[in-house]
Amino acid sequence: MSLYQEEISVGIMILGAVLVLIAMIGIVRFPDVFCRAHALGKGLTLGLMVLLFGIWLDPETEVSGLKVIAAIFFQFVTLPVASHLLARLSYEKNLPRVRRR
Predict the structure, then answer these.
(1) Is the Cα dihedral 46, 48, 51, 54 positive or negative?
(2) Among 2, 21, 23, 62, which one has the highest count of C-beta atoms within 10 angstroms of its own C-beta?
(3) Mean predicted confidence (pLDDT) in 52-73
(4) Are 37 and 86 in contact (CB under 8 A)?
């Protein structure tokens, strides 16, 4: 049972790392601040939560289960707020949006 649980845990951690990588590529490649804030708020939150969930399922980290759950909770609370504040500040500063023709 432990071998299967470890394989599932590693698979979920790889999925979370891929989601974080996609979010980082979105932050670099998107044209304006509002799109980048969206990639930060959605992609990074989902990727980190999946990655931390995979760490929580790892059979060798049973002692730190409550710490991982707390980290998931605080990431879920703080990352969307940070991206919202970034978008709101750029809106208040009247930063231009990219218009494509």
Answers:
(1) negative
(2) 23
(3) 82
(4) yes
Tokens of 70: 């707390």
Q: Is the pLDDT of residue 64 over 80?
A: no
For residue 15, pLDDT beyond 90: yes
Residue 26 has pLDDT above 80, yes or no: yes
Residues 6 or more apart in contact with residue 74 via CB below 8 angstroms? none
Report how far residue 101's alpha carbon sits from residue 93's, in angstroms, rounded to the nearest whole number: 24
Q: What is the mean pLDDT of the chain?
A: 87
CB-count exposure of residue 2 (10 Å: 0-12, 13-18, 19+): exposed
pTM over 0.85: no
Report the C-alpha gap between 45 and 57 in whole angstroms: 18
Written as six digits, the tokens of 67 are 């710490």
Work out the number of other CB atoms within 10 angstroms of the CB of residue 95. Answer: 12
